[in-house]
Amino acid sequence: MAVTYHLPEDIAAVLERLEAAGYASYVVGGAVRDWLAGGQPHDYDLCTAALPRQVKELFADQHVVETGMQHGTVSIILHGNPIEVTTFRTEGKYSDGRRPDAVAFVTEIERDLARRDFTINAMAWNPVRGFCDPFGGQRDLQAGLIRCVGDPDTRLTEDGLRILRALRFAAQHGYRVEDETAAALHRNKAQLAHVSAERITDELLQILCGAHVGVVLMEFSDIIAQILPEITPMIGFAQHNPYHRYDVWEHTVRAVESIRPDPMLRLAVLFHDAGKPGTFSMDEKGIGHFYGHPVLSHVLAEQAAKRLRLPAQTEEQMLYLVRHHDAPLGQIPKHVRRKLAVHGEQNFRALLAVKKADCIGQGTTPGNLTELLQQEQLLEQVLAEQSCLTRRDLAVNGNDLIAWGIKGRAIRRYLAEMLAQVLDHPEYNTREKLREIFEQLRAQDDCIELTVNGMSAGSCVRKIKKLLSDIPQVDTVDITLDSGKVVLYGQKIPFEQVQHMLAAAGFEVVL
Ligand code: ATP
Ligand code: MG
């Protein structure tokens, strides 16, 4: 086959120099696969008969980094970009189920290709010699098949990570796993115990973000459950609910596929209903319910997130969406504004995306999707108003309240109450109107005067203040030690509770 494979200049230059020095050298692995499949390679791996030391000598005029000399890899830095060159090698015994105990450098490309995971990844190409494809990689690529090089059971026991790599190539490129390899994937899933959390997470997120994730999650749910046992009860769990066409797992898979391929969003959707099996109940009409499932989903998702060692921010956002995926976002501007104030724009939008995916995954009620689209329009409309959504947007601030005679934690309470009113009536957000609201609120304030016997020192004052700070309705307390006068400011102060609390601490209260 006369193929002209256009190599980036720097890659071609490295190959040429190696070949000119008499070392057979090739582009290998993913780049050859992606190029043959009609795609654009995202990086190029080169392999060569030259030993790492010889590669270094040959490129002595360039910046060369010893990336992994013992594995045969050096990086030549050209125009600021590293080009990885690895010596042909075979691998020794694998005793830890993940990495070879030793590697040996060899001079035949075929022996190097034999250690690679799948036939589609075990091809090499050189501008002069063309393809080296001893395991039928081109044939499998054309058929869209992932097939282990050699005996699948042996290859998967050597390195458990290959199990997830197979799923990843299937999810990313839409390839099918060839039957014998597929059977071996299922059979050897326990090998995943030898793979580090970092590598599992890296592959899992790529699987989840693959364009063909759905078929992979359905066909290999047992393997996903091996790394995420939290999903096991979902698989095949019937919902007994007219709003759901599919069982919990299939619903989840369809929803995962329907949200944009952002790792955080896909994880959130993967776990959003994980709590359903554990909260299932059936009413007298035979309808299934899952009351409170988001709380349990949250617990399960958090457990998985810790094991996957997700970045803190990804974990936090994901859990937020799982926890709130079922909460309504409002059907009228006033309600949308309130929800926006609670969730913030970013979470509100993410929740909408999760809800859309959830709805598509139900496979029953297209009307709900229309509702969600209307909600999105409402959101845009509310955002366009540029109305006040947080305490910081209010036309008055804490300093104004201090100037109006308010102090302590009453300031927060006043601002919160003003914000609640402004969210319902954006036009109230003027200094004049807020002053009016303030006066109304202040008129409702309590001011209770007591006399307390038994205060003997400054320490008593501090003790009483500390006790009263546990009563949320009390904003501030003024105490005069000499006269024993205590004045409480706040709203709806529970007097009996105050009296009881002080008595229990040894103070006698006189009204
Ligand atoms: P991509 O870079 O698109 O993710 P890739 O196939 O290039 O895919 P890399 O991880 O960059 O994947 O690995 C480069 C090559 O090294 C692979 O094509 C494969 O030949 C080989 N390889 C990588 N990981 C393994 C492994 N765990 N077992 C066997 N061979 C592997
Ligand atoms: Mg690669």
Give average pLDDT, whole number.
Answer: 93
The unique ligands bound to this protein are: adenosine-5'-triphosphate, magnesium ion
Total count of helical runs of at least 4 residues = 23
Instruction: Describe the largest sheet.
Output: 7 strands, mixed
Trace the largest sheet across and list its strands: 3-4-5-2-1-8-9
Gap between N and C termini: 102 Å
Low-confidence stretches: none
Alpha-beta content class: alpha+beta
Taking all Cα atoms into account, the compactness measure Rg is: 33 Å
The fraction of residues in strands falls at 5-15%
Which descriptors would you attach to this protein?
511 residues, alpha+beta, seven-stranded mixed β-sheet, four-stranded antiparallel β-sheet, 17 strands, binds adenosine-5'-triphosphate, binds magnesium ion
Can you describe this structure?
This protein is an alpha+beta fold and 511 residues long. The protein has 23 helices and 17 strands. The protein has helices at residues 9-20, 30-36, 52-58, 109-113, 137-143, 152-158, 161-173, 179-187, 197-208, 213-219, 221-227, 248-258, 263-271, 276-279, 293-308, 312-324, 333-362, 366-384, 398-403, 410-424, 431-443, 458-468, 495-504; strands at 25-28, 45-48, 63-68, 73-78, 81-87, 89-91, 103-105, 124-126, 130-132, 145-146, 176-177, 281-282, 288-289, 446-453, 474-480, 485-490, 508-510. A 7-stranded mixed beta sheet has the order 3-4-5-2-1-8-9. A 4-stranded antiparallel beta sheet has the order 15-16-14-17, with helices on one face. Helix 12 (248-258) runs antiparallel to helix 13 (263-271). It is elongated. It starts with 8 loop residues before the first helix and ends with a strand. The chain binds adenosine-5'-triphosphate (ATP) and magnesium ion. Adenosine-5'-triphosphate (ATP) binds at residues 29-30, 45, 116-117, 121-122, 159, 161-162, 165.
